[in-house]
DNA sequence: TTAGGGTTAG
């Protein structure tokens, strides 16, 4: 209806140059952002050879709002005289088009304007917002000084944009000063302040602002709800989140796209992926962000296959992925070690131009290093001209997890040379590398000196690395003492690290003590029972093994069945131990028998000690034969061209026998075999493993 | 005639 009315008006203008009519039309077009009509009016005005400042300003505004900055700039450049609105309209256009630096260059042109239009609150609102986007703190401060002197600082728009500028460019304290400096803060100031605290990880300060807001502001707007949902997500408070969700439904704010995505995100971060999925299904409208949010919610909650399915559904729905969607999808592939999916995503990223985005490259490095293709991760890393802390962390941790300790430490050294500040995460990779290389003193130097000098408090992950480092060096009593004397929130992983070392180093006395202690804290931990059982089997203490098995039966503790999977030509093949389901199982068994004969000839002897005592001696070898990783690897060998690397993932820790056998498989088949078990990567090549037989 | 705060990632 509106369009028809506009056309009638346009027709009535034919042959006329009524300024009043064109202004009325321009006003409506500016509101409705109708580019086609805007162009028609523009043409009429050119033909009539008359276009005053206000009409030109409207044209700039229309073109700018429709994202046609070249046309907006053309109108602006051809104006014989301009006023402050001409400048502010063009600046707002550049700002919304993602070109904050252009905003500042227009400000420069403005200062040379002979008519010297005085910059007003509209100009500074946009200039300060641009400073925020560009992290141009000095410029932002200068603008702050100007608006204070000129009295413009009392406009609520200016105050709010100043809060945002300080929050992004300097710190939350400066933002807070602006917030408290002037009376009459509005809902936007409160929203900005809450978000500012949340961005800086200060949840309780955000809660305090929210409490003050309850008494000062009677009505929250939809952005307040987005901020409060962010607060629930950050504090993982799903109960409060649910209450807020109910309030949103009462006020019918859930139809807002931002609110809708924030609800999905809140449930995802609170660990309730089912509620996230339901909230997503209820959304009346979905954009790339809502899709990316639900994918992230699934990935964060281990629903990895579902996340990749959503990625496909999203595109079927006509929504194109953006850089963050690719980052989530690649992270999902990393979780699944789905190298071929990751490779195809890499190709899409190249085609779509998102390879220029650092977060995508960081995710590619992460995906490749977690999928056992550390060489591909390295290629991307080396090619990257601009790296951030996360890039360095991904590469250092990638090298460490793949057993390349020396490379990890070299990269850490390069990071320091490039003057990129290491973080909490960096030192996890660095300490793991020290563990691989047996650098005990260096490990202690990093934890006790360098980290503390940099103001990073070592956490349980770092202390666990030190335990691993001592264990690997055979210093188990020191590791035990370290755990008992160092104040840390030791968790199951830390204690299992020590127990596992006791098993490897055959320190049965200490192992028994540690296992008893773990079972006091975690009475039903399957991993501890299995490690104990393996430990006693190694000591030929079959009576103890039987006792543990009986105890497990009594407590109904079941060992998770071993499962391995391999992707061949985009298809996932899953193998369970003693599995006969695969269509090629006969070929797999035949090839496995041949291979075992071949490796026996060069020294392989089945390690039957790791098989249960209650299995007859002559059947023990058979049990070992059918471990899931052996089946998956042999399937890989017969299904891929010679020389192609084999990538297998296993849900449990690899057993000693498989480790020895696979080392020799890599030698006799001349293949690189990468196995990601529940703890680490094993890269088998030429009869050796990257873990140096310690895992 | 022109302006502000908000959802997704590693």
Automatic annotation (TrEMBL):
Concerning NCBIfam families, the annotation shows: PPR
One Pfam family recorded for the sequence:
DYW_deaminase
Q: Which residues form the signal peptide?
A: 1-17
What's in the keyword line of the UniProt record? Repeat, Signal
GO MF assignments: RNA binding; zinc ion binding
Q: Which InterPro entries match?
A: DYW_dom (IPR032867), E_motif (IPR046848), PPR_At4g14850-like_plant (IPR046960), PPR_rpt (IPR002885), TPR-like_helical_dom_sf (IPR011990)
Biological process annotations from GO: RNA modification
User: Which residues belong to any copy of the DYW domain?
Assistant: 603-695
PPR repeat extents? 52-86, 186-216, 287-321, 388-422, 525-559
Annotated protein name in UniProt = DYW domain-containing protein
Family annotation (PANTHER family): DYW DOMAIN-CONTAINING PROTEIN, PENTATRICOPEPTIDE REPEAT-CONTAINING PROTEIN
Coiled-coil spans are: none
In the UniProt record, does the keyword Signal occur?
Answer: yes
């Amino acid at each position: 209806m509106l369009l028809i009315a506009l056309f009638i008006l346009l027709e009535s203008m034919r042959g006329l140059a009524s300024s009043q009519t064109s202004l009325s039309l321009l006003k409506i077009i500016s509101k409705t952002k109708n580019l086609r009509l805007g162009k028609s009016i523009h043409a009429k005005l050119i033909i009539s050879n008359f276009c005053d400042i206000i009409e030109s300003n409207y044209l700039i505004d229309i073109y700018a709002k429709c994202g046609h900055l070249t046309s907006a700039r053309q109108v602006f450049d051809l104006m014989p005289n301009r006023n402050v609105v001409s400048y502010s309209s063009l600046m707002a256009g550049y700002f919304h088009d993602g070109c904050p630096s252009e905003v500042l260059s227009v400000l420069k042109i403005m200062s040379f304007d002979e008519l010297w239009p005085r910059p007003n609150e509209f100009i500074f609102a946009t200039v300060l917002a641009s400073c925020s986007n560009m992290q141009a703190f000095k410029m932002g401060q200068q603008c702050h000084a100007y608006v204070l002197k000129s009295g413009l600082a009392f406009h609520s728009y200016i105050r709010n944009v100043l809060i945002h500028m300080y929050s992004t460019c300097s710190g939350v304290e400066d933002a807070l000063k602006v917030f408290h400096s002037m009376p009459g803060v509005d809902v936007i100031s409160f929203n900005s302040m809450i978000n500012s605290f949340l961005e800086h990880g200060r949840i309780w300060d955000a809660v305090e602002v929210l409490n003050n807001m309850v008494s000062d502001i009677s009505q929250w707007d939809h952005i307040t709800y987005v901020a409060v949902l962010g607060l629930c997500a950050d504090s993982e408070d799903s109960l409060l989140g649910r209450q807020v969700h109910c309030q949103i439904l009462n006020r019918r704010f859930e139809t807002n796209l931002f609110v809708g995505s924030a609800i999905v995100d809140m449930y995802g971060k609170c660990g309730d992926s089912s509620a996230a999925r339901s909230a997503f299904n209820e959304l009346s409208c979905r954009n790339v962000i809502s899709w990316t949010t639900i994918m992230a919610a699934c990935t964060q909650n281990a629903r990895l296959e579902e996340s990749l399915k959503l990625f496909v559904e999203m595109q079927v729905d006509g929504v194109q992925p953006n850089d963050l969607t690719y980052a989530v999808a690649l992270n999902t592939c990393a979780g699944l070690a789905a190298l071929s999916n990751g490779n195809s995503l890499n190709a899409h990223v190249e085609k779509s131009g998102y390879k220029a985005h650092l977060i995508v490259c960081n995710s590619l490095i992460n995906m490749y290093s977690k999928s056992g293709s550390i060489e591909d991760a390295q290629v991307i890393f080396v090619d990257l001209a601009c790296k951030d802390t996360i890039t360095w962390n991904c590469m250092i941790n990638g090298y460490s997890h793949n057993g390349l300790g020396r490379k990890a430490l070299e990269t850490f050294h390069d990071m320091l040379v490039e003057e990129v500040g290491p973080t909490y995460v960096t030192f996890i990779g660095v300490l793991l590398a020290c563990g691989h290389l047996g650098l005990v003193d260096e490990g202690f130097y990093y934890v006790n000196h360098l980290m503390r000098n940099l103001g990073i408090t070592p956490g349980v992950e770092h202390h666990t690395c030190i335990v691993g480092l001592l264990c690997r060096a055979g210093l188990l009593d020191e590791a035990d003492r370290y755990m008992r004397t160092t104040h840390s929130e030791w968790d199951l992983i830390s204690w299992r690290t020590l127990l596992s070392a006791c098993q490897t180093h055959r320190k049965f006395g200490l192992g028994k003590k540690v296992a008893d202690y773990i079972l006091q804290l975690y009475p039903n931990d399957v991993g501890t029972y299995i490690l104990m059982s393996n430990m006693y089997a190694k000591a030929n203490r079959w009576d103890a093994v039987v006792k543990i098995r009986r105890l497990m039966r009594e407590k109904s503790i079941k060992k998770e069945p071993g499962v391995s999977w391999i992707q061949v030509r985009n298809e996932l093949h899953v193998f369970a131990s003693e599995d006969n389901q695969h269509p090629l199982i006969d070929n797999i068994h035949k090839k496995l028998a041949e291979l075992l004969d071949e490796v026996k000839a060069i020294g392989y002897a089945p390690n039957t000690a790791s098989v249960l005592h209650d299995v007859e001696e002559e059947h023990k070898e058979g049990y070992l034969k059918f471990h899931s990783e052996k089946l998956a690897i042999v399937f890989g060998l017969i299904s891929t061209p010679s020389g192609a690397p084999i990538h297998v993932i296993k849900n449990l820790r690899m057993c000693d026998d498989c480790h020895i056998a696979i080392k020799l498989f890599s030698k006799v088949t001349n293949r690189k075999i990468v196995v990601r078990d529940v703890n680490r990567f094993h890269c088998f090549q030429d009869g050796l493993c990257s873990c140096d037989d310690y895992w």
